[in-house]
Protein: Olfactory receptor 4C11-like
Amino acid sequence: MEQNNSVTEFILLGLTQDPMKKKMVFVIFFIFYLGTVVGNLLIIVTIKSSQTLGSPMYFFLFYLSLADSCFSTSTAPRLIVDSLSAKKIISYNECMAQVFALHFSGSMEVFVLILMAIDHYVTICKPLHYPIIMRQQVCTILIVIAWIGAFIHSIAEIMLALKLPFCGPSLIDHYCCDLQPLLKLACTDTYRINLEWASNSGTVCTGSFAILMISYIVILHSLRNHSAEGRKKALSTCISHIIVVVLFFGPCMFIYTRPPSTFPMDKMVSVFYTIGTPFLNPLIYTLKNAKVKNAMRKLWHMTITTESKR
Structure:
């Protein structure tokens, strides 16, 4: 990766400089990250091994859990290790790689949430056409499109980052590399790049959130024609997804859809949607989904039985 500046490494200031608080950061985020990885891997393994979770809903949930794991991994391990390090140094190339990974996995999660909303819409509003519209080939094509969309978005972000010349200082007042904190260190007028960044990330966040909210409003409106039992089941599923959407897009829009100014809560808001939301997603989907819980129990019993026979 060719550099266009004199800076070869950056220093991440992290969440805090207080030694005691650093230890708290290590313990708290190690638990969060461990829970995220274990929870999402459990969902991935359960969906892959269960014959009862073969519908498109769980096909998309598989990729949401995969995106969650990658999204958290793009920032959490570095934050955890740096919390015990005296000097949090990250090379220029590693920083650019983190920008790419953060936006690729994050935008992949956004697009999968949209696909899940499409699946719910077809399930509730077009039930007779569901087997044809949401057949396996269509779902696979939709996931491929999501991967391509995430890649294009990430390439756009990394190209903007690579345009920035750095000549010092190299202190990033954040726990990870992202375009917003990097813009503050650039030795040039960043007005145009700010506009390009806002139009890219801001459009992805606000546009996707609008699409999701409109789709769920249509879905909830159409439920008035369903039976009481069908309405209750559909509402349970939709509410879970609406909670996930609000938890993810609220902080995301706060960071990516405003002018490039710094607020004291920026780092904590970023922590919530990059580490907190991936941790909460497995809990939300498993606690409110009887099928997933039953499949996990069967997988657990099968594992215990297999081990006892050895």
Summary: The chain has one domain: 9-309. The first helix runs from residue 19 to 49. The chain is about 75% helix and 5% strand. The two ends are 51 Å apart (CA to CA).
